[in-house]
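TL;DR need structure tokens for one chain.
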Amino acid sequence: FCLILPETDAQGAYAIAEELRQFIAEQTIKIDGSSITLSISCGISTYQQQADIKPVDIFKAADKALYQAKNNGRNQVQRQDL
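>> reply
TL;DR here they are.
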């Protein structure tokens, strides 16, 4: 899924993603007597109204950051600048 955070800089977006990641990691789901823990990986890209940047460029950068987080062991936040 994607979060669009207007009026949020890269540092703020990272902080929100990290808070969400930690919250998810602290949860335990109980199903049929078994406990399951979850984790998420997040990719962040920020747009500062640069010229010639299209929405697809922003999504590609965030996707690249997401795969970097997964390749680095998962359960983390990574950022990719445009």
